């Protein structure tokens, strides 16, 4: 049986794989993310996902490695994780009352195969007041998340509409990932 490795420090990605009853190890990659690559966001997230997976993959033939990356785009600007409270505030103000796209890219690597894909999900926010934004910033939830919000947390209060895979917004399009993992011989253990 191949050994699945998640090349991610994201607690959300870990929880989603656990939710599906997959057994895996975690090795966090030291790959440096640069959001400035001049490629479309759908390519960018795949390139960053590949960078993370490839950093952890060490040519061990029994390993299947998953890397993933998530960004938010608004008017062709790419928003990663906020670097400060002010940066998070600016991001949330720019997302207020608008529709943005969340891109998640995934790479799965083994010694003889590489699969990569992305999902794009449209998220529309209600108009946010300054007070709502400040209250949200106080939760501290913004700081490790692309676009400065977490749809799975208090950020749920901002979401008017979503079109696409919810789990991709959280960081890992889990259904598509499971489907692709099958080709690597990785299937969840179903408990009877
Ligand atoms: C938009 C949004 C993003 N996010 C998260 C998913 C990702 O973890 C994070 C984007 O950062 P990433 O660089 O994709 O991932 P990461 O740094 O958390 O983990 P690693 O690089 O080790 O794999 O934003 C949410 O949790 N909820 C949301 O609603």
Characterization of this structure:
The record marks 12, 70, 152 as: Important for substrate specificity. Its cofactor is a divalent metal cation. It comes from Guptibacillus hwajinpoensis. It is found in: Cytoplasm. There is one protein chain. The chain is α/β, with parallel strands linked by helices and 192 residues long. The chain has helices at residues 11-19, 41-56, 85-95, 130-139, 166-170, 174-182; strands at residues 3-6, 25-26, 63-74, 77-79, 99-109, 114-125, 159-163. Strands 1, 2, 3, 4, 5, 6 and 7 form a seven-stranded mixed sheet that branches. A hairpin with a 2-residue loop joins strand 3 (63-74) and strand 4. The longest helix is centred in the first third of the chain and has 16 residues, at 41-56. The protein is elongated, with a radius of gyration of 17 Å. The model has no long low-confidence stretch (mean pLDDT 94). Bound molecules: thymidine-5'-triphosphate. Thymidine-5'-triphosphate binds next to strand 3 and helix 5. Thymidine-5'-triphosphate (TTP) binds at residues 8-10, 12, 28, 33, 52, 68-70, 72, 81, 102, 144-147, 149-152, 155, 169-171.
The low-pLDDT segments are none
Radius of gyration: 17 Å
Structural class: alpha/beta
Helical content (DSSP H or I, runs of 4+): 25-40%
Strand residue content: 25-35%
Bound molecules: thymidine-5'-triphosphate
- What is the name of the CATH topology? Maf protein
Q: Which architecture would the CATH scheme give at its second level?
A: Alpha-Beta Complex
Number of domains: 1
CATH class: Alpha Beta
Overall 3D geometry? elongated
Total strand count, please?
7
Q: Main beta sheet, described? A: 7 strands, mixed
What average pLDDT do the residues reach? Answer: 94
Quaternary state of this entry equals single chain
What sequence of helices (H) and strands (E) makes up the elements?
A: EHEHEEHEEHEHH
- Ends: how far apart? 21 Å
Helix run count: 6
């Amino acid at each position: 049986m191949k050994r699945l490795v998640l090349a991610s420090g994201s607690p959300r990605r870990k929880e989603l794989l656990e939710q599906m009853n997959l057994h895996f190890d975690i090795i966090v990659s030291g790959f440096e993310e640069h959001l400035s690559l001049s490629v479309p966001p759908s390519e960018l997230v795949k390139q960053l996902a590949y960078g993370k997976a490839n950093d952890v993959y060490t040519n061990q033939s029994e390993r299947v490695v998953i890397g993933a990356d998530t960004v938010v785009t608004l008017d062709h600007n790419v928003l990663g994780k906020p670097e400060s409270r002010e940066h998070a505030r600016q991001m949330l103000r720019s997302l207020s009352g608008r529709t943005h796209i969340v891109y998640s890219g995934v790479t799965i690597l083994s010694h003889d195969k590489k699969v990569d894909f992305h999902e794009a999900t449209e998220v529309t926010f209600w108009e946010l007041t300054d007070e709502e934004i400040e209250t949200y910033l106080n939760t501290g939830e913004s700081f490790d998340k692309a676009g400065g919000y977490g749809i799975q947390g208090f950020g749920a209060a901002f979401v008017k509409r979503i079109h696409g895979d919810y789990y991709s917004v959280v960081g890992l399009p889990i259904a598509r990932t499971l489907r692709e993992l099958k080709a690597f011989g990785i299937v969840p253990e179903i408990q009877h």
